[in-house]
What does this fold into?
Amino acid sequence: MKRGISPLLGAMALLAIVMAVTAIVGPSILDFAEEQTGEAADASQRRADCARAGISIGSVICEEVEDSYELSIEVTNTGYQDLADFYFQSIEDGEYVDYTFGKSDMTLRPDDTAVFANDSFDNSSEGGTFFSGTCPSTASRDIPPEEFEC
It folds into this structure.
C-alpha cells in the first residue's frame, strides 16, 4: 500500500502556496508598475512640450572688459513653451566649456526676448551653442565664431 497525499490535496496545497506568494510579492510588483508608468508618462509629456519649443538668437556681442571678455547674447523664445536654465557651450581648444549667465534661471515666456551676459568669457572660442536646459534638444542654436569675435 502506497502512502502519500491525494492529488486533490496536493493541488490545493500548491494553490495555497501560489496565493501566499502572490499576496506577499504582488503589492511590490504593482507599485513598481505604477512608478514605471508614471515616469514614462512624465517623459512623454516633456517630449511633447519640448516639441513646441524654440529660440532665435538676435545680437551677439563680445566686449573686452578689463582683463576678461563679456559675452552678451540676445535670445527670443519663438516657441510655445516657457524656457529656463540657459547656458552657452563653447568649443575651446577642441573641448566643450559651459558658460552660465546672471539671469540663467529666469523664465523666458513665449515671444519674450532677453539679453544674457557672462563677464568671464574666454575669447578663444571656436563657436558654440546656446541652450535652454528646459528643452536642450529643441531650444538650442549654434553660434559660429565669426558672430562674436572679440
